[in-house]
């Protein structure tokens, strides 16, 4: 995120503007939810905060190479992701929308008039239903689903 003279998000924006269709993995020691959401909205396939485990990086690299080698699979993945998200309950969708907006559990709880613990439970259920093991994986799946499901088009800004 702190690349001298440009910054990670600015570099990602330039890559996108140039139309370079390459998987981007963000590695940072200065991450937060807002930056992660922004990077994922712009198409990053992973957002890893230092220190990260070797297997996390290896999994991200494998996902990136898979995207390069099998672009047709992206369409299939997008349809599967959209289907999974449509199966969430109304409340889970509300919590997911707050996650997309980069809101904390506390802010989500206040916005939805529920307890922060209830938000945590819903987030865990969302991640389980979507088959995601991390916050960034949940965002990535949601943004992949946006490519298939026009219902998300109004929510997400690329």
CATH superfamily of the largest domain: Winged helix-like DNA-binding domain superfamily/Winged helix DNA-binding domain
Radius of gyration: 16 Å
Q: Which fold does the CATH topology of the largest domain refer to?
A: Arc Repressor Mutant, subunit A
Read across the widest sheet, the strand sequence of neighbours is 1-2
Main sheet attributes: strand count, strand direction, barrel closure: 2 strands, parallel
Order of helices and strands: HEHEHHHHHH
The helicity comes to 55-70%
How much strand?
Answer: 5-15%
Describe the protein.
The protein has 158 residues and is mostly helical. Helix content is 62%, strand content 5%. It has eight helices and two strands, in the order αβαβαααααα. A two-stranded parallel sheet has the order 1-2. β1, α2 (33-41) and β2 (46-49) form a beta-alpha-beta unit. α2 (33-41) runs parallel beside α8, α4 (72-86) packs across α8 (135-148) and α5 (90-100) packs across α7 (116-130). The longest helix has 16 residues, at 54-69. Mean pLDDT is 81; it is low at 149-158.
């Amino acid at each position: 995120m702190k690349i001298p003279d440009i910054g990670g998000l600015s570099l990602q924006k330039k890559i996108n503007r140039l139309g370079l269709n390459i998987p981007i993995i963000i590695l940072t020691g200065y991450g937060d939810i807002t930056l992660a959401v922004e990077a994922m909205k712009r198409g990053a396939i992973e957002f890893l905060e230092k220190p990260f485990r070797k297997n996390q990086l290896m999994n991200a690299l494998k996902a990136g190479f898979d995207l390069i080698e099998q672009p047709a699979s992206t369409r299939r993945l997008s349809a599967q992701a959209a289907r999974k998200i449509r199966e969430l309950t109304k409340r889970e969708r509300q919590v997911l929308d707050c996650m997309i907006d980069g809101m904390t559990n506390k802010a989500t709880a206040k916005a939805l008039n529920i307890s922060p613990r209830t938000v945590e439970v819903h987030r865990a259920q969302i991640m389980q239903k979507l088959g995601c093991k991390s916050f960034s994986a949940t965002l990535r799946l949601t943004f992949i689903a946006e490519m298939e499901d026009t219902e998300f088009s109004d929510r997400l800004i690329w």
